[in-house]
Amino acid sequence: MSQPIARNLPRSFDKIRTRCGDFFESWIEANEAELHAAVALSDLRPMVERLVENGCRLACVFAEDRVAAQGFYLLYHLFDHPQDRRYLLVRTSIPAENPRFPSVSAELPSVNWQEREIQDWFGITAEGHPNPRRVALHDNWPEIHPLRKDFPIDTVLPPFEGEQHVYRPTHGEGVFHIPVGPVHAGIIEPGHFNFAVAGEPILYLQLRMFYTHKGIEKRFEQLPARHAVYLAESISGDSSFSHGTAFCMAIEAAAGVEIPARARRMRTILLELERLYNHVGDIGAIATDVGFGVANAHASRLRELILGVNEELTGSRLLRGVVCPGGVRRDWTEQQIIDCRVALQRFESDFADLMRIINGSDSTRDRLDRTGTLHPDQASDLGIVGVAGRASGINRDLRRDHPYAAYGEISFQVPVYQEGDVLARLRVRVDEVGQSLAIIREIAARLAPGPTRIALPPLPPDRIGLGAVEGWRGEILHWIRTGADGRLERCKIKDPSLSNWPAMVEAVKGNIVPDFPVINKSFNLSYSGTDR
Amino acid sequence: MFHIFQKSVQTGLVTIGYPQKPAQISAQFRGAPAFDFSAWRDARPAAEACPTGAIQIHDFDARRSVTVDYGLCNYCGECAEADGTGAVKITQEFELAVRQRNDLIVTAEYALRPDGSQGELVEMGRNERGPGGRRYRSESAGGPGLGIKTEETTTPSVSELESLERNVQQKIHRLLGRSLSIREVDAGSCNGCEMEIGALNNPIYDLERLGIHFVASPRHADMLLVTGPVTRNMELALVKTWRATPEPKIVIASGSCAISGGIFGVNYATRGAVDAVIPVDVFIPGCPPRPHALLHGILLALGRMEQRALPQGATVVNPQSC
User: Number of Cβ pairs closer than 8 Å across A and B?
Assistant: First the structure.
């Protein structure tokens, strides 16, 4: 994608290549957003170490079964660097007869679950993993590796017959466990939380996710791209548009097409509307969890206002069925844009009143301040992304760092706080609401008439592409490889929640059990996005 | 404190009048597609465009059978866009909840022309099976299961069924119709349904004004409102929740995934429809169903609202024909 601001920027990966070039078997500038490199399996660990020493961040690790096609598995490590707008995708081939790779989780705990997913789904061993137990398939699953190509998606497994998972015991006088879930008390998604407590304070929280695992990455492999966008929209319901957009961007990158300017700007507005409705909803939910119902009543009313705007612009309250490979499916009239602006003006003043009410409550502040603290060094070790990262000192936002849609046309502030508590996560949201409103205003003013969609040429097999979107929660990555007959050969999805769940474990330590709901809500992570 | 009172007075009443008054819905809202079956000349473009396979075509013996499943539809509108002849239109219909899974499935049979287009509409009816011949209401649908029967083994006659249903409805209405406690169970959804169900608690939809509220435990519940394709990992939790709910109880499957498995279908990780695992009383289509649609479905289960015909042009002409 050509972005006016993207030119003349530091290109740190070029320097890194000269420093670490001896590791790489190949190095290709695939497009303006992606570098592709290959490394031998024996050089994988030292390469990762060297890149991390040079300031790179390991964003994602994933695998692909190429045994039938090429005779090996492929393992991918995706890096970015604060001083480069491109992503670096490093590929390693793993022999089919001896499927193993060196784990880097001990040094980089951010990929702990991701490496174990590769073990579960592909049967490729992560050698030296500090905790190699199953994560994505529960303990009672038979020995299957569903993302292998020779595993049929419609395989019928025996029914689930009860837990076999062994939680880490916690001993001591007065220490006991509180098991919660998977069916929770509220209207939320399923997961299991096992708290070890001594009186009120939480000693240790063990998480068990993947209750909503529905084989989404495998399901993508059955669908043509134009249908698969609906599956992408159903990865995490509150991020339908962000996931849909990331998927479409991956397809567009694979096809090598650039979407029309109007479509880029329309996507930007819709991405910000998604951020708005979720942020204001979360602000209300945080208020609820400290017993401030009136604030939540106003917040949920404001959320409904944005959902109404969504419906006026797209026909769907959750922004579904509008993004498509090549652009967006419907255009807007001038009147629709004016109505949207008027509604957002009303929202802005109403939101200011809401924040006056919340900020005016000392008892609310008392409950949020220094509750559920995630220290910046922990956040950085765990590779925390998005809102939770920015509340713990991580100055990263893909809209600015890897501009997509129309974000390269404008400038905006990225709020960063160092405190890492519930209050900081609330403040990041409040600041971002203001930024979103400004972004929508500015982009709407630039919305010149023009086409909203271009037809994509038929996609030949074996094209690859990456889509990266800063969803309201954080970094969403979609990576695809095209297959025969316009179908997808592989779709890797990374929801920000997968990175951020372990942060919750750290943030709740030492807090009292009654504060868990508000801490959980301040992260508001997706179960379905994690479990896929 | 003053700000709070001031704001409440300024804001005034925001709660909608639905269902006592008609719903006020945006003209842009994409509701159920309506099919003008008698004017439809070629179902292939719409079927090809449908991402969930809710429109299925079977050609045999110079005939074409077209099946539309509103319980699998994700209401994206691709069919109307692809058809382009005006035979498929997107309506504003959202009151789609039904008591029988089959009420969401419509079949039209046409004479098949040599060029592959459709001739005269020969017959219309409901289908006992889902698209592709997949049986939804069956113990054997997605695997061995946990032993709960979800289908009658002998089929009673229509009049027996109707009187049985009337009796059950009266009983449920008497017991639960005035005040109802709902336990929501996410059996594997994407969280889209949860967001709209959660919205029922906000001041706009305010479910409590109808004497209905959400409770934290199945032990306190009269109704389970279940979402999602039932994942393998949630099957047992769903069954245990169902068993923990005292009789009499009502089960609602909310959203296309809960009705049919939706876009996820049945695969190694999901059992698909909720009624493949526990018996279901009411089905609320939508992806997700908007809050009004949820209200309609919940009140339908209580006998406080009526089941509506599928959108015009898609009415069942002869429901007993198959």
Answer: 198
